[in-house]
């Protein structure tokens, strides 16, 4: 496909997407899908039509942004929110309702999880309201529909499904009691007029988004987030964005795995390195020895096990690791990784998980060691490459980080080429 740069530039301008954060293959694939949607259409013809068609522009964005989320993802964030909300209401003497914002809200799992967590904490419907925004009209429409399949329910703690959902033929419908607490709308975080007439929010959830922007866009978005967050409020982010928030003048509130930051007592902002951390990537079962670089949509990610023979002990342990990691049970996931290594041959994916768990716990040197072990066993392990690159970047080794990112990009291009044969 010729002149890819024009499509990259379009997505950068419209939604702030930095192509290097997701890899060129993802965008090229989306563009190809849109081109062949009309038989016989050329890339140039598609580009010309794209300039004058708002629906086609949105269709391309939808093709790039593939939702991947579930209810109560990062459980400790919601438990922390519930405790802070009770405290915040006492501080303001219950004189108004709490305001909570979720953006991007995707298909609604996060804002609805917020509402369920606060209802479970004993807050009444009059004591809080949740706003959810997303750049995708399709995602917002699905969120308003509030019908969900099994993929939206992960982990062992699913009691909320019994309390707040009604079973249907092909899934579950969220109760009106929760839906009426959430207002959903289309919005772009790069729009300078976004929520400009709204009062600031007590709590803002903006997770796994900043990492997809270049430096100037990160700074621009951060200024918007500061405007939207109350001076005494709390900003919840993704697990890979902590070092970025610290350099931009925020501080962690100190609750493990809550990924929550505030402005109170924060140090002065510091210069931001050229390369930033990366999100928890999607790990798909590989079709060959060298796995393709498969990255999540800009706003979400998950961890799934590598392929092993079904029914084997190794496959069971790998599935358990994934379930525990997805459920936020880091200690149990680490113990299962160690159990695997005691009884099976060294496995790159297990070392990658150990690196990821160490990374999330703030043990950067330990994480580096595990990522390097994963790369020793599987030199083109895509996720280990990008996470190790992120750690090097956070320590100021921009050159080393860039080399690793280039290796990951080359692996992605090679895998994509193999897939097309």
UniProtKB/TrEMBL annotation:
The keyword Protein biosynthesis does not apply. Residues 1-241 form the CheR-type methyltransferase domain. PANTHER family: CHEMOTAXIS PROTEIN METHYLTRANSFERASE (PTHR24422:SF19). Coiled coil: none annotated. Keywords: Methyltransferase, S-adenosyl-L-methionine, TPR repeat, Transferase. SMART domains: MeTrc (SM00138). PROSITE patterns: CHER, TPR. It comes from Pseudomonas bijieensis. This is Chemotaxis protein CheR. GO terms for biological process: methylation. GO terms for molecular function: S-adenosylmethionine-dependent methyltransferase activity. SUPFAM superfamilies: S-adenosyl-L-methionine-dependent methyltransferases, TPR-like. TPR repeats lie at residues 348-381.
């Amino acid at each position: 496909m010729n002149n890819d740069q024009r499509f990259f530039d379009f997505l950068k301008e419209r939604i702030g997407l930095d192509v290097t954060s997701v890899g060129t293959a993802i965008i090229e694939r989306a563009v190809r899908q849109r081109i062949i949607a009309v038989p016989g259409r050329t890339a140039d013809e598609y580009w010309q039509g794209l300039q004058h068609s708002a629906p086609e522009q949105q269709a391309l964005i939808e093709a790039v942004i593939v939702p991947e989320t579930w209810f109560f993802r990062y459980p400790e964030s919601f438990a922390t929110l519930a405790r802070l909300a009770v405290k915040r209401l006492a501080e303001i003497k219950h004189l108004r309702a709490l305001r909570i914002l979720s953006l991007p809200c995707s298909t609604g799992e996060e804002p609805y999880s917020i509402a369920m967590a606060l209802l479970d904490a004993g807050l009444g419907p009059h004591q809080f309201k949740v706003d959810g925004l997303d750049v995708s009209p399709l995602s917002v429409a699905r969120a308003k529909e509030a019908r969900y399949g099994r993929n939206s329910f992960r982990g062992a703690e699913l009691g909320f499904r019994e309390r707040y959902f009604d079973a249907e033929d092909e899934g579950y419908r969220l109760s009106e009691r929760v839906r009426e607490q959430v207002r959903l709308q289309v919005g772009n975080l790069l729009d300078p007029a976004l929520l400009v007439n709204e009062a600031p929010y007590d709590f803002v959830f903006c997770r796994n988004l900043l990492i997809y922007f270049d430096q100037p866009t990160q700074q621009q978005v951060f200024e918007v987030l500061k405007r939207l967050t109350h001076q005494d409020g709390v900003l919840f982010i993704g697990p890979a964005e902590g070092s970025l928030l610290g350099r931009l003048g925020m501080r962690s509130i100190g609750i493990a795995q809550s990924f929550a930051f505030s402005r109170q007592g924060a140090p002065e902002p510091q210069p931001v390195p050229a390369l930033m951390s990366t999100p928890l990537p999607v790990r798909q079962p590989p079709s060959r020895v060298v796995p393709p670089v498969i990255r999540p949509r800009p706003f979400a990610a998950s961890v799934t096990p590598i392929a092993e023979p079904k029914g084997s002990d190794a496959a069971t342990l790998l599935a358990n690791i994934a379930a525990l990691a997805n459920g936020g049970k880091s200690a149990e996931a680490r113990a299962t990784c160690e159990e695997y290594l005691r009884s099976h041959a060294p496995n790159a994916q297990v070392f990658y998980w150990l690196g990821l768990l160490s990374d999330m716990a703030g043990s950067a040197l330990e994480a580096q060691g595990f990522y390097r072990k994963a790369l020793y066993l599987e030199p083109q392990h895509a996720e280990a490459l990008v996470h190790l690159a992120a750690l090097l970047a956070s320590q100021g080794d921009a050159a080393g980080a860039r080399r690793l990112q280039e290796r990951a990009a080359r692996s992605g291009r090679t895998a994509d080429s193999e897939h097309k044969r």
